[in-house]
């Protein structure tokens, strides 16, 4: 999670490289932090040992012959092959939808922050004080929302302190922080209305943006704190486990000691899908797969400062 | 369903644990309340007895030989394997969508409750009476909606009684409770408008939130009272039943008495999916899989009290 | 379709029973009206006779031997097995989406009827005449919409006659009925505005609800009168037919006379899916699978009468 | 595309027939215009000839024996069977979504036309001139939109000529016609506002409908002029072609001359799906599968004339 | 990317050709720029060499016999065949959804530009200066958005220079360009409001369009700068690679040197899907598959100029 200052026009550098055959090869042999093999290799080694043991027992110790019923246990694996694939796709789809949903919400945060800043810039006179207030508070909201979703994001100094002394408000860190920021912005606008410096129509004019801030917060909380129903994830793990554990028995007859890499590879494929799904299900963490939220927050900051 | 008072900033503790291999193992051998095996084990035992009986009859009593046509009944199971998988995925998807839809609706309830409180806090003077009225009624609506959806939720005292005597209204418990709360809030605002203490623009300002309350209620009722078309669930149950009951006949030739655990496992997989789907289809119950609604209602309460 | 008066608080009794193993069994052996077997049994008998005939011809008359190419016709069935499954899932999904879409629309009808009643109740003085007008017209709209979608719904008396004489308007039954109701409500509000008894802001206040009434009507008409493209349903029926008709040829070699129940069961599964899809594709009929619209209309009526 | 005058209440006759076994049979043996077999039969004949040739060469000329590797080419077909099915389903789904999206847009056109007419009828005094203006222009917009999407729709006379002389405007047929109609309606309302015959609130009151007209037009253009990415359709056609052309080689060993009808049937199934998808991808044509737009436009016309 | 001036009524020529059998053939043997074979042929040749080598080693050098366990490695390929198909479909679906989402956003850009122009044309007097200002700025926004998304689009002259001198503003090209255009339009309207030449209601009247401009920009940035989670694309590439590399080992026994074209074809199919998905995932490039954005921008320009 880098922390450099970013110019607004270049807030999002192209992350989509051009794809070429050479590129493919580099993809194949690069095992970066997000690579599932880094997390799964202890279990893969265990599976290899287990498969080798099963193969040894069946072939050398018990010396099961071709007619043994054990051979046909693999019938179960082809019967259930569809079901396990379908479940993994279901898992992948729902996890990806949350991730993309999270991205959409932060895209809305960008849009509404921009719109609020542009509208206020057009509406307010060039009076430094009022513009300055929102110049601080709009990015502060985004920043607070990020820390609300992920406590591990480093605090970047108290934005409130940048405000002139009479506008500073002490936030209550025991309470819901993003709510307090939205509340402050609403109060400021209502005060301007009461003092006759804004018409009611102008308050309504910026209402959709402030309303959206709260909406985005509630939706992000929904994604952050509601994992997939426990029954599914628990059932899927049990299913993968039994599927893999029984896999060597039937196929030793066909594959001999080749069973070892093959069971390991099948496990790698199935467990990777479950693992990636678990990771992207919560898109607001700071992992390599997660959304570049710190970058987005900084983009909001530089864009709001440009406008106001 | 816990009942402790919760600070608003921590209303939703992180429920997404970090996943590690150790974690996986704990998942595998923990059979918590939601585990389908707890519900299915009587039927699994029945299936085992039945499969054993079929195997005994075919192998010992009738002594069917390799050429018997019975052997090839399994052809049907691979022909229909796709269809049954597809149907279960369809079932899983629709049930999950309802569950997630329910979660989205309650996320909207959180958001609109917050927004209504923040707007009123900004709009109303620091007059205790009016603020106090909505401080009671907004969370009371959420609480009433929860009881409306799930009669088993314990009544937590009459929120109305916390109001000053002249504002108390006797609800008619024979009628639609959430409607009455929304009606009361609308009337209160209209009265303030008639007394000249609110402008019409200000009434419109909080209208989207009150409108959303009724919308959320109708949508929750839709999810709660409209199960999947009876034809589908009835057909799917019949299909799974016949599929499992005919499974041992063909495979005894390949699997001998191994047929017993294998048919049991296939049944466990297929019936689990149907069972989980049935459970999460109605996300407003109080099961372990269902949404943590009591917790959400308490979060609304503490957040509204912070703001107003 | 029952017709009893229903208290609003209980308008939608829980239709989701608790599921237990005993429950499953009752599901298996109950063949209610919606059961596809009741509709398909004549064709299932035909299929049985046909399969038996094919088996008889191949085994007794032509005495095809193991080497006959006819044996391998089943290759085609496994090649096309995916495609037929995918198509049935596509069919099931689109039909279910229409059904659920229809339910969502009626849920909106409930919500907007409630909201309109609550808003009018808060806005209008306790003058019986005006409240009474909308108390009659809001549920009358829902009732007219239902009859508009399904001519077979029994007419429940002319709601107009419940109005005081000077407010009664003769509807033109040759024209679009729901449009006329919405038109009457709009005109009544505009008249109140012209007479100075409503502000323009108040007319706008209830506009979203009236606008939604027309929207719901147009969307219901879309679902009601636009079946799936004829090419798909025609192609799917031809495909199922040829698939089933050619099924016995290849499998007689493996299955002998067992082919009869197996082809019948495969047909039952495939045709049931098509049949259920056809039924729920039009969710506004009066079948057992269709939406409980009469019940919803009565719920709207009792709720509106409670509020206004 | 029929052209008769239709009463508004019956604008959309029930097109969903009741389904009975007899009905199914009629479906099977009716080859109407939309039937894919009418379009595919030249290619089906070619495929038959080709398959027969391959079978003749392999069996009579080259006399390949059972051990030939050619036999196992069919391995490829089962490996890729999934992929081709998935791709066809993807194709079917996206095409259907466009078709249904198009239907939804026209349903919105109906709804907004109705709403605009009802609102104007309530707002405008019974002054023939102004009502008459919109009575002509609202259906004229729908009609112009249809011709904008499908140049082959016959022009039904210039609607402008029905207007009184001083209201007639010469449209510029080189420019975007639907835009001009919306522009005329906006200008007429603004003129009424400038002349003091409408309040600004009333102009806003009908704004959502006029705004929706332009939105519907842009969305229809999107569906009409953006086919599926060329890479997909090109790739899918090549894939089907190679899949079918290589099909006979491997299966001749199993099927002999039976290969001819079987390859033809597989081709019929795969190509039909691609063909239907191509047809419904553009739902605004005048084919049998396309949307009954002329009928919808006439429904709009009769409904608007009823109301205004 | 053509650059000719286009009449607005014909901005989007029909790109959906009529399909005929002849047409299909032309599709099959045309390898245009978007054809994946042009990009994959170096890797296809490598795969062919590799498969040939494996076949040579197994058959000629090692002379593995029929009983070798190597033969059954193909078991793995059928076990994982589902999973790889599902993943490719997931990839295809998500990429297509982004592409279509991008198209929908530009369709909204068209619609809002039109609507803004039509509304302004109706609202503003025929004063050349103000109309001219928006006649330049509305298409300039679309053009700037396009360059913001794709730096390679050629700059088409500074639109600002077409404005009269006193209206020209120097844009800051280091900052976010589209934001500056929206800001200018907002400021211009607010100035007109302050000068009393617009009512506040009229500013609100065009607010939805200006708000939408920023929304579209943020959503396009989301699609442009957020590729699919790296874990998925990395995992999928590794999976395809290992799947293809191990494919020849098992199947040489069945297919001999036929393995070469077959492995090459399977690779072509799987890699094409991944490649096309990568291409359409970013729909704002200038490739043949990408959206015709330059054409759409020119359509906006000519339509706005017609109206204002």
Automatic annotation (TrEMBL), chains A, B, C, D, E:
One of its GO terms (molecular function) is chloride channel activity. Its main location: membrane. GO terms for cellular component: plasma membrane. It holds the Pfam family Bestrophin_2. It is found in: Cell membrane. Signal peptide: none annotated. It is a multi-pass membrane protein. The chain crosses the membrane at residues 40-57, 69-90, 240-270. It comes from the Bacteria. Keywords: Cell membrane, Ion transport, Membrane, Transmembrane, Transmembrane helix, Transport. Belongs to the anion channel-forming bestrophin (TC 1.A.46) family. This is Bestrophin-like protein.
């Amino acid at each position: 999670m880098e922390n450099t200052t970013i110019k607004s026009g270049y807030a999002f550098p192209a992350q989509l490289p051009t794809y070429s055959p050479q590129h493919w090869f580099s993809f194949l042999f690069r095992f970066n932090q997000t690579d599932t093999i880094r997390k799964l290799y202890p279990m893969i080694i265990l599976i290899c040992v287990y498969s080798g043991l099963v193969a040894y027992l069946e072939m050398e110790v018990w010396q099961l012959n071709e007619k043994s019923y054990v051979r046909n246990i693999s019938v179960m694996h082809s019967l259930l092959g569809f079901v396990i694939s379908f479940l993994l796709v279901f898992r992948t789809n729902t996890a990806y939808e949350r991730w993309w949903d999270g991205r959409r919400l932060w895209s809305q945060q960008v849009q509404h922050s921009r719109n609020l800043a542009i509208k206020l810039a057009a509406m307010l006179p060039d009076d430094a004080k009022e513009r300055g207030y929102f110049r601080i508070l709009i990015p502060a909201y985004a920043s607070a929302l990020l820390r609300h979703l992920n406590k591990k994001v480093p605090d970047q100094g108290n934005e409130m302190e940048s405000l002139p002394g009479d506008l500073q408000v002490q936030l209550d860190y025991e309470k819901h922080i993003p709510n307090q920021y939205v509340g402050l912005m609403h109060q400021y606008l209502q005060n301007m209305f009461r003092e006759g410096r804004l018409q009611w129509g102008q308050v309504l004019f910026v209402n959709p943006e402030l309303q959206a801030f709260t909406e985005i917060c509630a939706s992000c909380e929904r994604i952050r704190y509601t994992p997939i129903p426990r029954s599914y994830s628990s059932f899927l793990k049990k299913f993968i486990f039994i599927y893999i554990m029984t896999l060597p028995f039937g196929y030793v007859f066909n594959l001999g000691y080749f069973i070892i890499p093959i069971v390991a590879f099948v496990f790698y494929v199935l467990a990777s899908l479950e693992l990636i799904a678990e990771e992207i299900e919560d898109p607001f963490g700071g992992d390599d797969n997660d959304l570049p939220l710190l970058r987005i927050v900084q983009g909001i900051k530089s864009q709001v400062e440009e406008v106001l």
